[in-house]
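User: Can you recover a sequence for this backbone? Please restate the input before giving your answer.

Assistant: Of course. Working from this structure:
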């Protein structure tokens, strides 16, 4: 730097203007150098719409055949971060607003990344994780058990995920810039309760006494700060199920974690839009704040509104770009959107229905050990804090996580420093030898078993009871289901003994027709970013299982003597990652055979097997060694079978167009904040166009005399797009758009629009739009 300055000094006669340019360049270089020395990584974040088909498709999670998507509460997204050492290794973490990761989706995403970037992103350093919402479209997993209720494979669900994940990673890749990451932790007490406390109580008392609660209450948050743009996002991990929405809900929703993400991203954009307003005039402002000052006279507003009658449906183009303006309007051009992800961790036995489980008929708490009412499970339901309104419960549990995340975000000060590294291995869990400590000293070798599910699996949980005569904590089983099961596959003596005391309902690991019913090869993976270590697990660890795994890995890392991992090492579990293999309980919880134990696929030593395999990865990480890649999991894409029929055609009654209003807002009406505006449009099947990165519904506000500005879309919590047919086979359908006017809405003249796409008999797709009459919010 000094040399450069000296040489400028020598060329004294250069024009003053040029010299100033030089000096500014030097200052800029110096400035960026000091900033760079502080930021040690390249960071990039991305986000893309993965909502998928909003009609006809069974929702993933509750395995309830009757829970079929029919509209959108708010959209689902894939949110990604990439962290790279400037000249070294990098890791990718993707958080999906989906029930879980899928092996097939992971395989296809990796193929696309390979085609784009060569060997930059592989199974080794990419983790794809699900938040466990039970309100997203299903049919995207490859193993038979997980696609029975969706009538097999659903290509549209699958494609929306693969495309969206790829695009969010591409965005993150293109956003890579120097930046820093901060980590922070804190307790959130009221967003989860243990739904199988009787199983938890079977863990040794000495172990339980080390913990204050029977679920993990800690949230771990990463804050991403870009050198140029400042804070650009955050990712956090906290354990609670995505079951605030019930097994009868039919609107697509990210449940409490998706809601929290929506709230936090909007919070950040609105705050930064506000603070930007004082700066340059070019910076787009919050659209509504411009408008509120224009009209003040209620009479004048009504008069204005009455001149805008509902307009008939008409062909539409460029729908998506119109709708995206709602969120992008808040942002400075070029500035990457703020990405906030709420990721899942060891939620296996954690319910967001924090009021407890009660019997629908009597209102008394369900039986403690079996979660039954009068001996049956069908009537036992967990209650969320918004009971009986599930949308309210979702909002409240979402808001609690959002508030805690904002807290941690605002106070994060511990910077991540150190190497980026990773280890990944595929392991065959169907016949793994596991060395465990023996009672009274020494060790013994035990084995895992081919996958199988116990009877209590079919009982479901208090978040979504099963439909048949099953109860949790069942170690005998009923004869009818034993018969049905025998038609499928009778487990042999060895398999029965291996799983004991689990009574086997479905011997899924040994069922191979028409293709595998359950996975046997599972990925295990460690990602390291400085002092943060992420353990990618392909399932739902219960509270105590998660604690044991984290402790085992942390002990190994910090006691290695390498000095690389100190007491500030943070270990988080990323649940439901890369593929899905149901639950993992502790050996002691397994003995109780509640839902989680019955769904622990590989027998009583499943957890010990994970701990052993993660210790291998951790050891290799410390020593700088490689690990065995293990056997490749199968790719069954070509074998997938689907019974979901395609859209045949859409139609409207004679004299009515797609998009026409069937039930309008009352003429010359005025609504108060907090009230709900409902408009019904003639519509067509949402499967014709998923409106990816677009919207089916829009609320617009009038600016001046004739300019309509989008203010809310179907990604907003306050706006619901509810699609329905009069009967299952009818080509006619309607869209009911409900807008609950938020307290923050500007006063003014509004209207509601619907966008859709209809399928003609010959198969061509035509887009349409319709508009309600204008109304006043006063
Ligand atoms: C609505 O208001 C307009 C203008 O104020 C008026 O002409 C019209 O009759 C009103 N319609 C109804 C149904 O009240
Ligand atoms: C639950 O089961 C345990 C073990 O069998 C028993 O000791 C306990 O009393 C039961 N609790 C209730 C509330 O039924
Ligand atoms: C959606 O509309 C259908 C048919 O009008 C109705 O039965 C259902 O309750 C609505 N769902 C929601 C969540 O509003």
């Amino acid at each position: 730097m000094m040399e450069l300055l000296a040489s400028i000094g020598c060329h004294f006669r250069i024009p003053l203007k040029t010299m100033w340019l030089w000096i500014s360049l030097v200052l800029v270089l110096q400035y960026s150098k000091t900033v760079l020395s502080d930021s040690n990584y390249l960071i990039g974040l991305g986000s893309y719409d993965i909502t998928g088909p909003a009609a006809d498709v069974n929702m993933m999670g509750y395995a309830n055949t009757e829970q079929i998507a029919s509209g959108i509460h708010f959209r689902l997204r894939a949110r990604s971060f990439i962290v790279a050492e400037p000249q070294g290794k990098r890791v990718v973490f993707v958080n999906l607003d989906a029930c879980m990761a899928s092996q097939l989706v992971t395989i296809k995403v990796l193929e696309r990344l390979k085609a784009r970037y060569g060997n930059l992103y592989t199974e080794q350093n990419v983790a794809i994780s699900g938040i466990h919402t039970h309100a997203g479209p299903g049919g995207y997993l490859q193993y038979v058990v997980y696609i029975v209720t969706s009538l097999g494979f659903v290509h549209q669900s699958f494609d929306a995920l693969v495309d969206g994940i790829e695009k969010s990673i591409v965005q993150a890749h293109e956003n890579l810039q120097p930046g820093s990451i901060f980590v922070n932790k804190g307790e959130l007490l009221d967003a989860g309760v243990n739904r199988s406390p009787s199983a938890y109580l079977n863990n040794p008392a000495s172990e339980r006494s080390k913990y204050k609660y029977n679920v993990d209450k800690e949230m771990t948050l990463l804050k991403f700060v870009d050198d140029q743009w400042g804070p650009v996002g955050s990712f956090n991990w906290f354990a609670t199920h995505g079951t605030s929405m019930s097994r009868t809900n039919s609107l697509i929703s990210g449940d409490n974690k998706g809601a929290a993400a929506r709230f936090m991203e909007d919070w950040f954009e609105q705050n930064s839009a506000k603070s930007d307003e004082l700066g340059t005039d070019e910076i787009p402002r919050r659209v509504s704040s411009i408008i509120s000052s224009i009209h003040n006279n209620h009479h004048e507003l009504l008069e204005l509104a009455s001149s805008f009658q509902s307009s008939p449906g008409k062909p539409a183009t460029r729908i998506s770009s119109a709708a995206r303006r709602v969120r992008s309007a808040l942002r400075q051009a070029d500035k990457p959107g703020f990405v906030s992800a709420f990721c899942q961790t060891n939620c296996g036995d954690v319910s967001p229905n924090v009021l407890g489980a009660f019997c629908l008929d009597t209102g008394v708490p369900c039986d403690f050990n079996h979660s039954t009412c009068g001996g049956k499970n069908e009537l036992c339901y967990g209650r969320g804090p918004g009971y009986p309104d599930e949308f309210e419960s979702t909002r409240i549990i979402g808001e609690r996580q959002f508030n805690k995340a904002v807290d941690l975000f605002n106070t994060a000060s511990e910077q991540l420093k150190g190497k980026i590294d990773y280890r990944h291995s595929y392991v065959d869990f169907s016949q793994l030898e596991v060395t465990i400590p023996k009672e009274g000293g020494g060790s013994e070798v035990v084995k895992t078993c081919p996958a199988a599910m116990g009877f209590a699996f079919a009982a479901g949980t208090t978040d979504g009871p099963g439909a048949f005569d099953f109860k949790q904590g069942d170690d005998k089983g009923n004869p009818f289901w034993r018969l049905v099961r025998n038609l499928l596959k009778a487990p042999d003596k060895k398999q029965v003994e291996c799983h004991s005391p689990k009574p086997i309902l479905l011997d899924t690991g040994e069922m191979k027709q028409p293709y595998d019913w359950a996975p046997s090869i599972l990925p295990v993976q460690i990602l390291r970013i400085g002092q943060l270590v992420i353990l990618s697990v392909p399932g739902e660890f219960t509270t105590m299982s998660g604690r044991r795994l984290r402790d085992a890995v942390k002990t190994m890392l910090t006691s290695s003597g390498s000095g690389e991992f100190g007491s500030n090492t943070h270990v988080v579990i990323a649940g439901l990652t890369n593929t899905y293999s149901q639950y993992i309980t502790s050996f002691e919880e397994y003995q109780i055979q509640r839902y989680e134990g019955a769904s622990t696929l590989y027998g009583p030593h499943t957890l010990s097997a994970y701990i052993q395999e993660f210790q291998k990865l951790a050891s290799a990480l410390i020593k700088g060694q490689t690990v065995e890649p293990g056997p490749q999991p199968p790719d069954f894409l070509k074998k997938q079978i689907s019974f979901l029929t395609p859209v045949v055609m859409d139609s409207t009654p004679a004299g009515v167009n797609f998009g026409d209003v069937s039930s309008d807002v009352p003429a010359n009406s005025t609504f108060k904040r907090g009230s709900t505006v409902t408009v019904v449009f003639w519509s067509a099947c949402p499967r014709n166009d998923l409106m990816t990165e677009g919207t089916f519904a829009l609320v617009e506000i009038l600016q001046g005399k004739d300019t309509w500005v989008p203010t809310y879309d179907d990604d907003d919590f306050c706006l619901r797009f509810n699609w329905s047919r009069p009967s299952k086979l009818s080509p006619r359908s309607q869209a009911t758009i409900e807008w609950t006017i938020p307290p923050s809405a500007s006063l003014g003249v509004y209207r509601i629009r619907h966008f859709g796409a209809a399928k003609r008999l010959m198969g061509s797709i035509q887009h349409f739009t319709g508009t309600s009459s204008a109304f006043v919010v006063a």
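That completes the design. The mean pLDDT is 90.
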